[in-house]
Design a protein that fits this description.
The complex is a heterodimer. Chain A is of the alpha/beta class. Chain A is built from 23 helices and 21 strands. In chain A, the strands form four sheets. In chain A, strands 1, 2, 3, 4, 5, 11 and 12 form a seven-stranded mixed sheet that branches. A five-stranded mixed sheet of chain A has the order 8-7-9-6-10, with helices on both faces. Chain B has two domains: 40 residues, no CATH class; 312 residues, Aldolase class I (TIM Barrel, Alpha-Beta Barrel), CATH 3.20.20.70. The N and C termini of chain B lie far apart (64 Å). In chain B, helix 3 runs antiparallel to helix 12. Classes of the chains: A alpha/beta, B alpha/beta.
Chain lengths: 625, 391
């Protein structure tokens, strides 16, 4: 198969997106100046190009979703400079190499009430002539070296004006060219490139001179490569405002996955039959599940799921576990914009927990009757497998009573990559060091059509399942999760459940299924239903479809106690976790006791008997009160 | 008709005879209600209650656009479940009493918001004169003739009758002449004397509460009924409470809606000993009430008390009314409610639609104003802040 040709600039900020394409088997990289990239794509000499956002204007291109060169504050490489404040400028020299920056400069100056004469001039000359009441636009790597008394960082100004990130460049292609596999390849390259930003900064310093640390900070702390709803809105706002001012022709932004539809040809099935089959414990297929998801009334789904729960767990016991969530680090290279938790390495709030800090947390956990640590963290670029091995060994030798429910599939991939190991030895070494089970987080929706849209830089459906398959085969148990309400359709949820059920048939390694709604305000993703009704329906459907997964956990933490109680009557048999809160220290005893009592009161009030369990879902008889 | 699954589940739980009565339209006994309360099969109970609910109202779910006014929180009663009342209007006790001008202005200031009802509840204030109350209603009525005034609980009417030496008929007809539209259902708590003695021994008795409503219904004033559950009462006392309401309703047909209210434990005496009833209890109580109160047209889930999530789920458990947008709610928020201060009409629609129901705006007398069988047009996106900065 012939490779696709992709044009890109040689600017440092593009390197993390392009570097890993150099040895790609699907895509061939062609380096060119920014304005040249657009011309090559226009002429059909390349299939796609890393285009400045302004070059999308008026064109019918499709954008590869999920990745871009952007910033949500100062960027350092798109500047207006001068000897006096911008308010005094009567002429501004524009480096026309990037139309995007020119338009951004005009929008920013407009917003300040400054309306100078604009004169096109190459940057080197423009900067030299930016004296007195004259300013100049300077972009790209040469902006690193400009020294002028007054500097407006245009990305920072944009952020201040709109509250949105600025997107400078995106992968764009002529319609219909980008196949899902190509987008996947671009995302893989971006993911890899972000992992080696330190090395790229060093290489750039070797080639061009300058301080590698400065470049590293630029790549890790200034430029953002992930695109979520905020970035999409930022880009669309930029294009809209530019069109309103007449700086650019109007543009409809389209993404390469908008036209992707891979629908099953659905059989006609009967709702009543599907419900009855589900209730009787007969296996239902994807078509039946999709119909149930779309059409079954809440209580009918609930009654059928309740019948299944009674068949599987007929003794009226509802379990829960006492454990503690510990996030060992908040350093993460993925830079998902949805995430309020992560910090870049070197940030003053970045941390990796010390042994001493962990010891305090574990001892509190034990003192309160906790038996498990749910240990998860960011994708820290410096932590190799040895760190985790030592950590797990230390926990296990110091606190033999503690179980480690540790590391989501995403983290395990990351550890394998940074340690240059394949998955199986990675998992076996972590197990040997003390990892007891794997939390099923990060599954979101296991359908790449949705995944690419909401979490493009996370591992793919196959990768997530591969970690679980490998872990199960090695003898580990794990949970499985689903996050709904991200704009997915019923068929995506059903595909997710189908993938889980298929793997479970193969490995029988999943102990429990847990779902919850995506919770976020002020993003485009809230468009779909994350209500309590949707939660109960999704749980009930899962109970019917996942006939081979033993337990279903009700998520009172996300839905509240009352809705979780209702879930116990619609398929769930477990009430989740009594969590020991991070910030509770001396008062922990009281708080914990209340929480544990409260969980048991909810279980009893709903008509069940509570029992504590461990992470393998074995009941712990002595501890139930 | 109920589904085969529901039919079977009810049979399994020994609820077959009750199921058959409901399907035949036969009235449930107190023992039936108690058995439903104790069955602990939420999904089957819900399916049965939903059958009755859909037979009456189809897929409609009602709401209105309302504002609350609590002109004073000074109250001589000492109800042990109350977080709102204060003994005087001194600053130190956080007590307050609005002047007539203030109270009227507070209501009139909401004119632009498309409100159709003001819900007024106060305390048993020891010194406010009778014409404060008649004046309040008259001035609102004159300034805003089309606004429905749902005002004052039976407890207040009883207190004023004693304090001002008037009969219930006099109190009610004078306020009706001043502008009263309908009466809220508060103050009923639990009718059983054992419970009343312990939680509210110095306010109107069950008989007095019921007599006020009987009188109102006789004057053509329709009213609502509540039940405050989840504190010290037993399940049979909940059934007794509902039985008394059902009996009065047989006599007058003046009740519009039944509203079970969960007790909120924060900042009050009973809360020290009793936790908040769980959501399971809320759903179960709604469903049993729908099945037992066969002469009540509407069942309300008051979202301020229940939380939006649970209120939405309750729409499948016999409930057909979510109260309203509820601007300016104070009483539950002072008892620890963490729900928003008000819900927009759009949020209410979203809540109702996500439950698979159709939003229907009603007025205070449960006349349907508009069935929203089409979604509201999408909200305009917030404008970028660019224009603000350039000003």
């Amino acid at each position: 198969m012939p490779k696709l040709k992709a044009a890109a600039v040689s600017f440092l900020n593009a390197w993390p997106l392009t570097e890993a394409l150099k040895d790609s088997e699907r895509i061939e990289l062609v380096l060119a100046e920014p304005s040249r990239c657009a011309a090559l794509l226009e002429a059909g000499e390349v299939d796609l190009a890393l285009l400045p956002v302004g070059a999308l204007a008026g064109k019918d291109y499709e954008i590869a979703p999920g990745m871009a060169v952007g910033a949500d504050g100062a960027v350092q490489t798109v500047l207006l400079v001068g000897e006096q404040p911008a308010s005094s400028w009567d002429e501004v020299f524009l480096d026309t190499a990037s139309r995007t920056s020119v338009v951004l400069a005009k929008l920013v100056l407009d917003s300040m009430g400054v309306h100078p004469k604009f004169t096109p001039l190459p940057a080197v000359e423009g900067v030299a002539r930016a004296v007195g009441t004259r300013g100049a636009l300077v972009i790209g790597d040469r902006a690193f070296d400009v020294v002028k008394p007054y500097v407006l960082d245009l990305s920072k100004e944009w952020n201040r004006l709109t509250g949105l990130p600025m997107v400078f460049a995106v992968w764009a292609a002529r319609p219909g060219v980008l196949q899902p596999e190509d987008v996947q390849e671009l995302a893989r390259a971006a993911q890899h490139g972000q992992g080696i930003r330190t090395e790229l900064a060093q290489e750039f310093a070797r080639q061009k001179g300058g301080d590698p640390e400065k470049y590293r900070r630029y790549l890790t702390q200034r430029i953002r490569y992930g695109v979520g709803p905020y970035e999409m809105t930022g880009m669309e706002t930029f294009l809209r405002l530019a069109a309103e001012k007449g700086y650019l022709p109007p543009t409809v932004v389209r993404y390469a996955d908008d036209h992707v539809t891979r629908q099953r040809v659905r059989r006609v099935v009967s709702l009543d039959t599907a419900l009855q089959k589900g209730a009787d414990g007969e296996r239902i297929d994807a078509d039946e599940a999709e119909l149930l998801d779309e059409k079954a009334p809440l209580l009918e789904l609930g009654l059928a799921a309740d019948a299944r729960r009674r068949a599987l767990h007929g003794d009226g016991v509802v379990t829960y576990i006492v454990s503690r969530n510990v996030n060992y680090t908040n350093v993460c290279t993925t830079a998902c914009h949805f995430c309020a938790f992560y910090r870049p390495r070197g940030h003053r709030e970045a941390y990796v927990l010390t042994r001493q800090e962990l010891a305090v947390k574990i001892e509190e956990t034990l003192a309160l009757g906790g038996i498990e640590l749910l240990l998860q963290g960011g994708l820290h670029p410096d932590l190799g497998i040895e760190y985790y091995e030592e950590l797990f060994r230390w926990v296990k030798s110091t606190y033999p009573a503690i179980s480690l429910h540790a590391l989501s599939p995403e983290e395990i991939w990351h550890i394998a990559r940074t340690s240059e190991l394949s998955l199986e030895p990675t998992i076996r070494r972590l197990m040997a060091a003390g990892m007891d089970s794997i939390p099923g987080g990060g599954a979101e929706i296991l359908d790449d059509e949705v995944r690419r849209r909401i979490a493009p830089l996370k591992c793919s459906t196959d990768e997530w399942l591969t970690v679980m398959r490998t872990a199960h085969r090695a003898g580990l148990k794990s949970t499985a999760t689903l996050m709904f309400g991200v704009g997915e359709e019923p068929r995506h949820r059903v595909n997710h459940l189908q993938r889980l059920r298929d793997l479970q048939d193969e490995t029988h390694g999943f102990t429990a299924f847990i779902c919850w709604p995506f919770q976020s305000s002020n993003t485009r993703l809230t468009a779909s239903d994350g209500s309590a009704t949707a939660y109960l329906r999704t749980n009930a459907l899962a109970r019917l479809f996942l006939d081979n997964v033993p337990h279903l956990q009700a998520s009172w933490v996300t839905m509240g106690g009352g809705v979780a109680q209702a879930a116990l009557h619609m398929g769930c048999d477990d009430f989740g976790q009594v969590m020991i809160e991070e910030n509770v220290v001396s008062a922990a005893g009281t708080t914990f006791k209340m929480d544990s009592e409260e969980v048991e009161r909810h279980i009893r009030d709903a008509g069940f008997r509570p029992s504590r369990r461990n992470m393998r879902y074995d009941r712990l008889p002595g501890l139930a009160t | 008709m109920i589904s085969a699954l529901a039919h079977k589940a009810l049979e399994r739980d020994g609820l077959g005879p009750i199921r058959d009565k409901v399907l035949a339209g036969t009235r449930l006994t107190d023992a039936d209600a108690l058995q439903l309360f104790e069955a602990h099969d939420l999904a089957a109970l819900g399916a049965l209650a939903n059958h009755v609910r859909e037979a009456r109202h189809g897929q409609l779910a009602f709401y209105n656009r309302n504002v609350h006014l609590n002109p004073t929180n000074v109250c001589v009663a000492t109800c042990k479940f109350c977080s709102f009342a204060r003994k005087d209007d001194q600053l130190a006790s956080e007590g307050y009493t609005m002047s007539l001008d203030e109270a009227v202005e507070k209501v009139l200031s909401k004119r632009a918001l498309g409100i159709t009802e003001v819900h007024i509840v106060a305390g048993l204030h020891p010194t406010l004169p009778w014409d404060y109350y008649t004046g309040l209603l008259r001035r609102i009525r004159e300034a805003w003739p089309e606004l429905a005034i749902k005002a004052f609980t039976a407890i207040e009417y009883h207190y004023w009758a004693e304090k001002f030496g008037k009969s219930y008929t006099q109190v009610l007809s004078e306020l009706r002449d001043a502008g009263l539209t309908t009466i809220p259902g508060g103050g009923a708590e639990i009718f059983a004397p054992r419970v009343r003695r312990k939680i509210c021994d110095d306010k109107a008795t069950a008989e007095q509460w019921l007599e006020v409503h009987r009188t109102a219904h006789g004057l053509g004033i329709r009213s609502n009924a509540t039940m405050l559950y989840g504190h010290i009462e037993r399940l049979d006392e909940r059934v007794d409470h509902m039985r008394r309401l059902r009996e009065l309703q047989d006599e007058t047909h003046g009740f519009q809606v039944f509203i079970p209210l969960a007790f909120h434990p924060e900042h009050n005496m009973i809360g020290k000993a009793y936790p908040k009833p769980t959501g399971f209890d809320a759903l179960r109580t709604a469903a049993v009430a729908r099945l037992y109160l066969d002469n009540f047209d509407h069942m309300k889930a008051y979202w301020v008390s229940m939380g939006e999530r649970l209120a939405q789920v309750a729409l499948g458990f016999g409930v057909d009314d979510l109260d309203g947008t509820v601007l300016e709610e104070r009483i539950y928020h002072m008892a620890g409610s963490t729900v928003p201060q008000a819900l927009s009409e759009r949020s209410l629609h979203d809540l109702i639609r996500a439950a698979g129901r159709i939003p229907a705006e009603r007025d205070s007398l449960y006349n349907v104003l508009k069935v929203h069988d089409q979604p509201l047009p999408p909200a305009a996106p917030p404008p970028p802040r660019l224009t603000v900065v350039s000003a």
